[in-house]
Amino acid sequence: MKNESDPLLQSFKLKHLTLKNRVMSTSHEPAYSEDGLPKERYQRYHEEKAKGGIGLTMFGGGTLVAPDTPAAYGNLYAGDDQIVPHFRELARRVHAHGAATMCQITHLGRRTSNYAGHWLPVIAPSAVREPAHRAFPKAMEDWDIRRIVSAYGAAAARCREGDLDGIEVFANGHLLDSFWTPAVNRRTDAYGGSLENRMRFSIEVLEEIRRQVGDDYIVGIRMMFDEALDGGLQFDEGMQIGETLANTGMIDFFNINRGHCATSVGLANLIPNMGTPQAPHLEFAGEVRRHFDLPVMHAARINDVATARYAIKEGLLDLVSMTRAHMADPHIVAKIMRGEEDQIRPCVGMGYCIDRIYGEGEALCAHNPATGREISLPHIVTKSSESSRQVVVVVVGAGPAGLEAARVCASRGHDVTLLEASNTHGGQVNLAAKVQRRKEILGITDWLFDQCQRLGVQMRFNCLAEQKNVIDLSPDAVLIATGGLPHAGYLNEGADLAISSWDILSGTVPIAKNVLFFDDNGQHAGASCAEFLAQSECTLEYLSPEMMIAPDIGGTNHPAYLKSLYGNDVTITLNQRLTGITREDDGFCATIYSEYTDQSIQRRVDQVVSDNGTLPADDLYFDLKSGSTNLGEVDQPALLAGIAQNQVNNPDGAYQLFRVGDSVTSRNIHAAIYDALRLCVAF
Question: What is the pLDDT, as a whole number, of residue 182?
């Protein structure tokens, strides 16, 4: 039941709007847009948070106002009236559950590409290139300034026409604050030089917005008060900007950022991941709040309820944002109100969500596959409608895939037994957590394990499952989640001489003095092992056939790995491949091949460590296959449609048989959990 004294659950008045609680999600862009519009997928994502009790869900991180700001990460486009009906539908969905919603509007300025959208020149106050997006911008002319000012006002008017509760103007790394910062603004006209001149453009933008939406509409600004960048905007000037904006009377709230996003390191500090302190900029935001009478909100790794509650209770914030936390669990507030705070699925700070935006073009939570898939997958798994049918499910393996399979099947009301060969749950996640800064990853499998316990799953550890003891349980369905085993790669010779990353991370094999590490995986598994090795006292060479190390790791995670590797004097060798290993005296000779020169060289080392992903541990699956009704076959159309698997290839079979996760093929945590959820939710 609702705790009336909980600071998080107190209402808050933002201008004329009463928010039912102090918990919010800031504007971000999950890249769920379609043709620059927030269609059903986008709407359902925000509606789920409203269902889950959130007070305010902002959206449209970087909603674009003009045609010369092409989308860089799936941005919405509010530069014409086509978006208005979609705004209205999103607002209707969110308002139906008592939550409010606002949109962020912006012009990306130099933070995009010259070779996208309409191929119009990227613009900025001055011709200063942004390292991250690498476009050479055109210095804005007077007519550019006039049309962009007008475009901001028109976009704001569309938000109001679309029944949104307000807007937020974005000023952190985009066009607006590019005028503020000396790092970008080198102008000598009325828009450059003094702080008053550098603020001229943003004041004109706000004046135009107010002219088009009126004084009674909610208009806030999300801005950095300190770029944390040599030559950039410093805190004293940031506070002067804040004072000037507040004194205009044109803004209704501050959304506080600290840092810059012009480089990968800057972005990683602005949006910090696991291994960094919780809420690193919270006290900074509190200092800003103490200075102003306007409401203050803030987001940056506030991913647990205790920290959020502290922020409100101590008066550091008026509204506390748990943006990524709501991607992991959109029902945070509802669980607080029900007294189920300990059942909130935790955000572990992997950064999989934001890194995927630039890589694969959509944000997904590492361990909640229903996020962004609300149309097809539920966040709350309910009991099967066939409640009279007692289904016995045996799950083999207590890694992420197996635990999720057990959780979902038990939630469906089935009788679930889970068999695990080791003495604990977690699978490969336990290896990933051997790198100290990545220990939070254990929160994924710890939460799943806790849910299985609550749901009454019978778990048998130290149980090496074999065909007979599985069949003896008389299952209706068997789910194989036995994972994979390390694979050295298909070397020309000496694959048996390579030490696996698992052996190193688990401590099974001691680390030698002079080590060659070959990463042909390109994901966190390999990079984590390299970091673990780097932090030992060995001399390490990191060998990769790619043009950069770990190309499947995104921009907010790369900096932490590179900091460790460079900080420990690791030699990084790219564009070359390990092809063979031979013994040599008391060490090894590694053969390294370059496709570019078509030549091989030999390297004398004490130890060769290799990560080439895994091969399925599938013996049990094939032992059980002939006795199954479906002979292991997955009805893929049924799977994709979210309906039950009824494939019968063997009428004499006694059970259905499926495998999930790495027991199918080497993939990541999200894939393993997604496998299990979409298969089992229809059981």
Answer: 95
Percent above pLDDT 70 for the chain: 99
Q: What is the pTM of this model?
A: 0.96
At residue 227, what is the residue type?
Answer: E
Q: Which residue has the higher pLDDT, 389 or 157?
A: 157
Which string of DSSP letters, residue by residue, matches 212-243? HH-TTSEEEEEEES---STTS--HHHHHHHHH
Tokens of 401: 């895939």
What is the enclosing helix (H) or strand (E) of 620?
Answer: helix 619-625
Task: Say whether 358 sits in a helix, a strand or coil.
Answer: helix
Long-range contacts of residues 505-513, Cβ cutoff 8 Å, at least 24 apart:
505/431, 505/432, 505/434, 505/435, 505/529, 505/532, 506/431, 506/434, 511/536, 511/538, 511/607, 512/538, 512/605, 512/606, 512/607, 513/537, 513/538, 513/539, 513/606
Check pLDDT > 80 for residue 390.
Answer: no
Structure tokens, 546: 């790619």
Buried b (16+ CB within 10 A) or exposed e, 607-645: bbbbbbbbebbbebbebbbebbbbebbbeeeebeeeebb
Residue 474 CA to residue 195 CA, distance in Å, equals 76
Give DSSP secondary structure letters for 379-404: SS----S-TTS--EEEEE--SHHHHH
* Residue 388: pLDDT band with limits 50, 70, 90: low
CB half-sphere exposure, 127, CA atoms < 13 A: 5
Residue 189 structure tokens: 């006209």
Q: Is 86 helix (H, G, I), strand (E, B) or coil?
A: helix
Q: Are 498 and 519 in contact (CB under 8 A)?
A: no
Q: β-pairing, 587-594 with 577-584?
A: antiparallel
- Amino acid, single-letter form, for residue 404: E
- 10 Å CB burial of residue 378 (0-12, 13-18, 19+) is middle
